[in-house]
Write a structure and sequence with these properties.
345 residues; Alpha-Beta Plaits; 3 domains; 5-stranded antiparallel β-sheet; catalytic activity
Length: 345
């Protein structure tokens, strides 16, 4: 196992090995377990905050820095990572979060990890230390190359440093859970909420027939806003008492315990189809646009038989479906990793 502590040591490791598998903390084992012939590049020691300016709302850190450590620092200044990185409690790192392209429930309101990544430094397959983007919010010069690293699963290189814009955290939050007689009625209500001019922090579907809606802002405004939601939905629902703890569990996927952990892109019109598949416990985030579910081999077969794209975070040796065939992806891969040091799983 290789455990570099500096970007220069990452460069040395890349040049010394023909095939590498990069791991942050191992919170997404299906993506980070090495196969035969691959050297394990463990970035857990490539950590630490490099720069943080609360007034400028910018944070720069090494790729192996754990999300939980960053969030503790930001919380002390009343700030947070608005894309709400999943798997913080199990030890997710900044680099692994970007490589897997994962965003949590608050992305419904603020946007995903791609929207908050300002820049990266990474080592490509030829051992070059390259830079994409920058460290300022108003960085519009040139092609936003750094965003290609989001969800690329490390195919283009090893992330060593990342810059993010951060936001002030809302002073107070409340959550309304509403159950409906059927999935059809729940989906109809979900569509109404998506189309309404509402400022919702999170909007999730809990199968088979419930919605959870989170709002944030000044405490005195939340009561009237909850009443407006109830009127729009035509139901009183339940206001959750432990709002913060509840959503920490959601973003950490604590509701999933099966042998396979899946992320599936979704849409409102796909949800009835997905609900007919042999999936275990599950939850639709971001207004029904992302499904996190547990499953088994039968679940994988069912998804692939229907051509439904998905990413396995835990429990499968072939985690990515379908394999990328986009010519642009192939050209970038050939330019940055011509020797194939970073194979996709």
């Amino acid at each position: 196992m290789l455990r570099p502590k500096t970007p220069e040591e990452v460069q040395e490791a890349v040049l010394a090995h023909p095939r590498l598998r990069v791991r942050g903390s191992g919170s997404k084992p299906a993506l980070s377990e090495p196969e035969e012939g691959e050297a394990l590049l463990d970035l857990s020691q490539l950590k630490g905050v490099v720069e943080y300016d609360p007034e400028e709302l910018v944070l720069v850190a090494r790729a192996g820095t754990r999300v939980a450590e960053v969030e503790a620092l930001l919380k002390a200044h009343g700030q947070h990572l608005p894309f709400h990185p999943p798997l913080s409690a199990p030890g997710a790192t900044l680099g692994g979060t970007v490589a897997a392209g994962l965003s949590g429930p608050l992305a419904q309101r603020f946007g995903g990890v791609r929207d908050f990544l300002l820049g990266v430094r990474f080592v490509d397959g030829q051992g070059r230390l390259l830079k994409g983007g920058g460290k300022v919010v108003k960085n519009a010069a040139g092609f936003p190359f750094h965003r290609l690293m989001v969800g690329a699963l490390g195919a283009f290189g090893v992330l060593v440093e990342l810059a993010f814009k951060v936001f002030p955290a809302p002073p107070a939050t409340r959550t309304l859970r509403v159950a409906f007689p059927s999935l059809e009625e729940a989906l109809s209500a979900l569509e109404r909420l998506l189309l309404a001019p509402l400022d919702l922090m999170a909007l999730d579907l809990l199968p088979p027939n419930a919605l959870e809606v989170r709002i944030g802002g000044f405490p005195e405004a939340l009561g009237p806003r909850l009443e407006k939601l109830k009127r729009l939905l035509g139901r009183d629902g339940e206001v959750l008492e432990e709002d913060e703890a509840h959503w920490e569990g959601v973003r950490n996927l604590a509701f999933l315990e099966g042998p396979l952990l899946l992320k599936v892109p979704s849409r409102l019109d796909l949800i009835p189809l997905l609900e007919g598949l042999p999936l275990g416990r599950r939850r639709y985030l971001l207004g029904g646009n992302v499904l996190y579910a547990e499953g088994d081999g039968e679940a994988l077969k069912a998804l692939r038989a229907r051509g439904l794209a998905h990413l396995v975070l835990k429990g499968a040796e072939d985690p990515l479906f379908p394999r990328p065939q986009n010519p642009f992806f192939q050209k970038v891969k050939a330019a940055l990793d011509p020797l194939g040091r970073f194979p996709l799983r």
